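sanity check both lines:
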Amino acid sequence: MERWEGKVAIVTGASVGIGPAVMKALAEKGMKVVGLARLTHRIQDLSNNVSNPSGQIYALKCDITKEDDILKSFKWISEKVGPVHVLINNAGLSRSTSLMDGSTKEWRRVFDVNVMALCICTREAVKTMKRCNIAGHIIHMNSITGHRVPNLPEPSLNVYPASKFAVTALTESLRQELRFVKSKIKVTSISPGLVRAEFQDGLPDDETKEVLEEIPALKPEDVAEAIIYVLSTGPNVQVINPQEPRSLFCREERTKQTRLKRERKSEIWDQTRRNGAYSLADQ
């Protein structure tokens, strides 16, 4: 974490749930942490509890469902605090509604927070990192529901898993784009299970909530610790779950490419032999 000391981190959804724990953990490592939230007084209170004198916490009022708010926030941060090195897309939202007769407004808000805001914040962070030649790190706070939809006593997750599946796909899509342009920016998706956080107050019905209370759950500090671990990995380290289908796809794709390359070389060899030339040095 030494390389991040004195550098700027942005945390969305900073005032509730996992957000405060993440901000404090980063500040304790000496980072300048800017929390984007609508309820800034909670962040201001948190800044008084940082023991590391190098760490600083800033509270910035921002409604991340409004693109103009996000753009103004990133501009203010660049001018007043410094260029962003780390972005934590932590903001998350769920609503207790239904796919069969739910509110379109509620569905749209979930996607505005969980997907669109994440995309806009990521875009602005990448712009700054590229402009300032920063080998930064972008972390998406995902969920296990972004990989599998759990079977609850009474289905109540509606569009939430779909929004998190989108985060899973967006992480890989961004990784491929960054790799294509040979960028040194890293992107990570962290998918915790159940976390005891205020965010869940709007999630389940009473019966499901009662069941969830009996399930062992993570604390926000546990997730913050995972973020610190990810940020502590070297610039060239890529953490991948070997059980993910993507890993299998990559192996199959590499095998396919190797086979095609061999077939192509065989074709070239046959052609050059027929023409009386046998050099394959540049193939």
